[in-house]
Amino acid sequence: MKGHWMGRAALAAGLGLLAGQALAADLEERMAPSEATVDFAAQSPWQIRVRGLGVITNDSGSVNGIPGSDLSYSDTVIPELDISYFFTDNIAAELILGTTYANVHADGAIEGLGKVGKAWLLPPTVTLQYHFTDFGAFKPYVGAGVNYSLFYEQSGSGRFSNLDIENKVGAALQVGFDYMLDDHWGVNFDVKKIFLEPKWKVDFDGAPLTGKAKLNPWLVGAGVTYRF
Q1: Within 10 A of 4 (CB to CB), how many other CB atoms are there?
Q2: CA 191 to centroid of chain Cα atoms
Q3: pTM summary value
Q4: 37 lies in some domain
Q5: Hey, what's the signal peptide range on this chain (predicted)?
Q6: 3-state SS of 1-49?
Q7: Closest by CA position to 98, among listed 129, 119, 121
Q8: What is the DSSP string of 109-132?
Q9: How far is CA 21 from the centre of its chain?
Q10: Are 18 and 101 found together in one domain?
Q11: Is residue 38 a part of any domain in this protein?
Q12: 213 lies in which domain range?
């Protein structure tokens, strides 16, 4: 009888131990964070950046029929907003929005003619980017795309009038990086090259002049990134 009682006690103890382990595993599983929720937050496809942007032009151009003629342009610093959509962890499209102006000056053989005029420029740019994801919080990327530059509020200066710079499509190249401070916030540095050489025309003392403005600006920016 004693042996039979001890066997039953051992069996009961074993069953109790197994039940306790199963209960602990069940509680651990219930208390673990939802993988779907964590992944959804980390993989939101939308991202925005706000940058301060330096627009550095190439200072080159010409007036048709005047050998040695040249043009130069003012450089500016402007705010910029861009919106990115991630198709995958590595592939994204970025829309870049901002507006700036350029003072156009006669240079080279026509330098003595002074300021030609001023024009505002709206250059929306779309790039397709590849983001490298193997460096932790440091996330470099490269991109290429297309720019469409619209010139508006154009005006001549002094003896120049009726300044007209044509709207122009150009190619864009890009390289930059984000350094993420947490899952949402980061800092950004970005450099773009826009290939932009529109035709232009102006009246000088009533006589028409035409030529090409070889702006080809560098866009150098730094700012803040927010990933939704």
Answers
A1: 8
A2: 9
A3: 0.78
A4: no
A5: 1-24
A6: CHHHHHHHHHHHHHHHHHHHHHHHHHHHHHHCCCHHHHHHHHCCCEEEE
A7: 121
A8: TTGGG-EEEEEEEE--EEEEEEE-
A9: 53
A10: no
A11: no
A12: 44-227
